[in-house]
Hints:
The chain is mainly alpha-helical. The chain contains 1 helix and 2 strands. The protein has a two-stranded antiparallel ribbon with strand order 1-2. It is elongated and about 90 Å long.
Amino acid sequence: MPENIQKIIKNILRDIQVELTDEFDRNFERQAFFSQAWQRRKSPVRNQGRAILTVRIPPEPKPF
Protein backbone atom coordinates (compact mmCIF):
# COMPACT_ATOMS: atom_id res chain seq x y z
CA MET A 1 0.00 0.00 0.00
CA PRO A 2 1.38 3.45 -0.81
CA GLU A 3 2.82 5.40 2.11
CA ASN A 4 0.40 8.33 1.83
CA ILE A 5 -2.62 5.98 2.06
CA GLN A 6 -1.13 4.35 5.15
CA LYS A 7 -0.74 7.79 6.77
CA ILE A 8 -4.34 8.68 5.94
CA ILE A 9 -5.63 5.43 7.46
CA LYS A 10 -3.44 5.92 10.53
CA ASN A 11 -4.77 9.47 11.01
CA ILE A 12 -8.38 8.34 10.62
CA LEU A 13 -7.90 5.58 13.20
CA ARG A 14 -6.25 8.03 15.62
CA ASP A 15 -9.16 10.47 15.21
CA ILE A 16 -11.66 7.67 15.88
CA GLN A 17 -9.71 6.65 18.99
CA VAL A 18 -9.74 10.22 20.34
CA GLU A 19 -13.47 10.62 19.70
CA LEU A 20 -14.32 7.31 21.37
CA THR A 21 -12.15 8.13 24.38
CA ASP A 22 -13.87 11.51 24.77
CA GLU A 23 -17.30 9.90 24.49
CA PHE A 24 -16.35 7.27 27.08
CA ASP A 25 -15.27 10.01 29.52
CA ARG A 26 -18.48 11.97 28.89
CA ASN A 27 -20.51 8.87 29.78
CA PHE A 28 -19.22 9.15 33.35
CA GLU A 29 -19.78 12.91 33.52
CA ARG A 30 -23.44 12.60 32.53
CA GLN A 31 -23.88 9.18 34.20
CA ALA A 32 -25.40 7.77 31.05
CA PHE A 33 -24.46 5.61 28.12
CA PHE A 34 -24.74 8.15 25.31
CA SER A 35 -28.26 9.51 26.01
CA GLN A 36 -29.64 6.59 28.07
CA ALA A 37 -29.27 7.24 31.82
CA TRP A 38 -27.79 4.53 33.98
CA GLN A 39 -30.17 2.79 36.35
CA ARG A 40 -29.41 3.51 39.98
CA ARG A 41 -28.93 0.57 42.28
CA LYS A 42 -28.44 0.20 45.97
CA SER A 43 -24.82 -0.32 46.74
CA PRO A 44 -23.58 -1.97 49.93
CA VAL A 45 -20.60 0.40 49.75
CA ARG A 46 -22.75 3.50 50.23
CA ASN A 47 -23.17 4.36 53.88
CA GLN A 48 -26.21 6.62 54.30
CA GLY A 49 -24.78 9.29 52.05
CA ARG A 50 -21.45 9.52 53.86
CA ALA A 51 -18.27 9.74 51.86
CA ILE A 52 -16.42 7.50 54.31
CA LEU A 53 -17.70 4.10 55.36
CA THR A 54 -17.91 3.94 59.14
CA VAL A 55 -17.72 0.67 61.01
CA ARG A 56 -18.59 0.24 64.64
CA ILE A 57 -16.20 -2.06 66.48
CA PRO A 58 -17.51 -3.36 69.81
CA PRO A 59 -15.21 -2.90 72.82
CA GLU A 60 -13.16 -5.84 73.98
CA PRO A 61 -14.63 -7.73 76.92
CA LYS A 62 -13.06 -7.02 80.28
CA PRO A 63 -11.11 -9.89 81.90
CA PHE A 64 -12.54 -11.31 85.15
